[in-house]
Amino acid sequence: MRTSKYIYPDNELYLYVVSQFINKGVTKEKIGAIVYELEHEYLPDLTLEDYTAEVVKVLHKREVLNNIATGLYLDKMADKGLIDAPLQSIIENDAGVYGVDETLATAVANIYGSIGLTNYGFIDKAKIGVVGDLDNKHGVVNTFIDDAVGAIVAAVAGKLAHATAKSDLDTKEAVFD
Amino acid sequence: MRTSKYIYPDNELYLYVVSQFINKGVTKEKIGAIVYELEHEYLPDLTLEDYTAEVVKVLHKREVLNNIATGLYLDKMADKGLIDAPLQSIIENDAGVYGVDETLATAVANIYGSIGLTNYGFIDKAKIGVVGDLDNKHGVVNTFIDDAVGAIVAAVAGKLAHATAKSDLDTKEAVFD
Amino acid sequence: MRTSKYIYPDNELYLYVVSQFINKGVTKEKIGAIVYELEHEYLPDLTLEDYTAEVVKVLHKREVLNNIATGLYLDKMADKGLIDAPLQSIIENDAGVYGVDETLATAVANIYGSIGLTNYGFIDKAKIGVVGDLDNKHGVVNTFIDDAVGAIVAAVAGKLAHATAKSDLDTKEAVFD
Amino acid sequence: MRTSKYIYPDNELYLYVVSQFINKGVTKEKIGAIVYELEHEYLPDLTLEDYTAEVVKVLHKREVLNNIATGLYLDKMADKGLIDAPLQSIIENDAGVYGVDETLATAVANIYGSIGLTNYGFIDKAKIGVVGDLDNKHGVVNTFIDDAVGAIVAAVAGKLAHATAKSDLDTKEAVFD
Question: B63 lies in which domain range?
Fold first, then answer.
């Protein structure tokens, strides 16, 4: 049901996501560093600070927060062993054929169009930067968080690709309306 | 990580999904009845029993179970008020701009191709059968379960559309290889 | 390959899409009218002109244009009988199990998040307004165009739902950063 | 419209896809070789012939054929310079912000669930095997075909991951129904 009086807690949701990330050692700078690694050859004028600022902007998008917060909550509950069987064991083991982490990540990557998707896949397989660190940590459930990081990177890359593409709208003759 | 020794609990996951459905009054027959309503004009020879049997088959697919079980677990935790703020209030209120329920449902509907997707959307808006019942129930969180039902119906419809389409492979000359 | 020197023809692409729409009798006002029909109960203060203006804004998004232009080109070639066999007959017949039109439409609807998707599905089945007109026209191929219209409506509805949701960011205390 | 009398040309569509692949030097063995490279460490018992046989099986799926045939037709028309402006220049230049090739590929990869998606992204960026060959060829439009190959590999990998996962259904006690 569409409950129009509900006040959507965007700000609170953002703070939740950031605090969950911090708990696992994921900072905006570490996410920015992966974007830098992937995009620097295409956009050499942008600094690490610029990329980190873009990460923060993407984390302002409600749909990004929705998907990521849900995944981080599931990781947290799995960490505590509180998920119903058999989902607990599936998530705890990061079973390869449980694709819900990929599904949530894809929804995030798609927000800036399908061009972000291939970056997400690459990061996930190549285990770059903090994604690799998360993957190697034992005794803690990181099933959703690594895909969340990859998805944010992919979203930022997609956003930047669109923003920096030269366009015929840059010229005077544009009659785009 | 791809942990090849892990034994995937398909059977246990199926039993979990079915038991969560039963707890909310959702039976395979009620899901089959929605498929019947949508598909009977195209496939008049199939009975309600046939449609219900197809629902059970689709619920054997691992990716279907993964997405649905995750959503039903979130509904159950929200029912108990156990989800971290602010996700608890978002899911409890079935906030219209929280799209994770749609994301999980779409992943299910997509398994039989994009043709199932439009059925899912229609069911969701038209609130047919048990989907409408779930939507009207107060005092209980049904944020994910109604989309899950719609997605199963869409998946079955997609599967049947593909299975019953006449094909040039039905003829002797087919050299499909 | 990422060819950074290429000037993306956003403006020209927009003009192409609009001209193809006009050729088939689809105007921005007719698309706006469907949005009005779906959204008026939720957003009673917006006029038909407001909805139409939103349609134009959504048609400024590059990813929206990319998907729609590709589909409209395929419709046009199919109209002329110029598509390679057997794709020509598949598209010409708007075969139900050819899901590429739905795939392109879904990519458009997804740009404003998964909440737009269910609207697209509803429009596609309920054949509202100009979507119904397109569906009933004989002797002309409208396989992609009706889904394109439904997708634009869904995208606008998703955009408006996000834009008009009350948010805790509207209050002074917001520390969203 | 759902035209139930239409005979879907699955066989003819398969032959079209295979012939377009052959024209560009893409054989089932070359696609199988990429799957081998990605999957051999997980599934060491399978031979190159086994992987190639799986490629052929995946190419039997109607939704796979639909998406790939559409993309290969667009490549072919772009090769001849016959696509309407400005789509012709966009596709000819394989512009990075035109995401329709990724959209079609994603639809293919999704058919075996979201787990295939990350493989597709990896192949696309790492340019493995024949995907790299296609990317380096000049004077010919390979905008859709490289994504198509990546998507098929991803689909096969997803299919194999699901098929080879150990399951509690393998045991006697399974009551999956």
Answer: 10-157
A9 in a domain, yes or no?
no
For residue D65, the distance in angstroms to the closest alpha carbon of chain A comes to 20
List, for residues C35-71, the tens digit of each pLDDT value.
999 999 999 999 999 999 999 999 999 999 999 999 9
B113–D2 C-beta distance less than 8 A: no
Size of chain B, expressed as the number of residues it contains: 177
Task: Judge: C167–A10 Cβ closer than 8 Å, yes or no.
Answer: yes
Q: What is the DSSP letter of A175?
A: -
pLDDT band at A119 (very low <50, low <70, confident <90, very high): confident
Cβ separation D10–B168 shorter than 8 A:
yes
Residue D107 covered by a domain: yes
Q: Return the number of other C-beta atoms located less than 10 Å from residue C46's C-beta.
A: 17
Query: CATH no. for residue A25?
Result: 1.10.3760.10
pTM: 0.94
Q: How many domains does chain A have?
A: 1
* Chain A contact probe: residue of B76, B98, B138 with most A CBs at under 10 A: B98
At residue D118, what is the residue type?
Answer: T
Tokens of C104: 């392109």
Angle at A146 between CA A140 and CA A147, to 5 degrees: 135
Distance from CA of C65 to the nearest CA of A (A): 12
How do residues C83-135 score in pLDDT, each as one tens digit?
A: 999 999 999 999 989 999 999 999 998 888 777 888 888 888 889 999 999 98
ipTM: 0.93
Q: Is D104 exposed, middle or buried (0-12, 13-18, 19+ CB in 10 A)?
A: buried
